[in-house]
Amino acid sequence: MDSFSNPSSGGSSRQMSAQELQNQLKSQLALEYAQQFLETVRGKCFEKCITKPGSSLSGSESSCISRCVDRYIEATGIISKALFSGQQ
């Protein structure tokens, strides 16, 4: 069995089609991107907005986090559009 064989096929020699492999890679990349995005936003917004960590968020901390996440998502969208429009 080579590196392109489907490990979930119970040991059969069925090969993954190129489309199946591409779909699996896309899913894995999307999951990794989402995890990295959340980790980055969590770190940056926490550092910026939470001045005195406690058992709950104050109203201003909650508002700050909400705005921070919104701006980060907006900025990421602008950057993505610029990158992808330049490739076409």
TrEMBL record:
Which parts of this chain are annotated as the region Disordered?
A: 1-21
GO cellular component labels? mitochondrial inner membrane; mitochondrial intermembrane space chaperone complex
BP GO terms, sorted: protein insertion into mitochondrial inner membrane; protein transport
**Localisation:** Mitochondrion inner membrane; Mitochondrion intermembrane space
The UniProt keyword set, sorted, is:
Chaperone, Disulfide bond, Membrane, Metal-binding, Mitochondrion, Mitochondrion inner membrane, Protein transport, Translocation, Transport, Zinc
Residue spans of biased composition, Low complexity class: 1-17
**InterPro entries referenced in this protein's UniProt entry, alphabetically:** Tim10-like (IPR004217), Tim10-like_dom_sf (IPR035427)
Q: How does it sit in the membrane?
A: Peripheral membrane protein
List, alphabetically, the Gene3D superfamilies matched: Mitochondrial import inner membrane translocase subunit tim13 like domains
Q: Which Pfam families match?
A: zf-Tim10_DDP
The entry assigns this protein to a family as follows: Belongs to the small Tim family.
* Record protein name field: Mitochondrial import inner membrane translocase subunit
Originating organism: Crotalaria pallida (Smooth rattlebox)
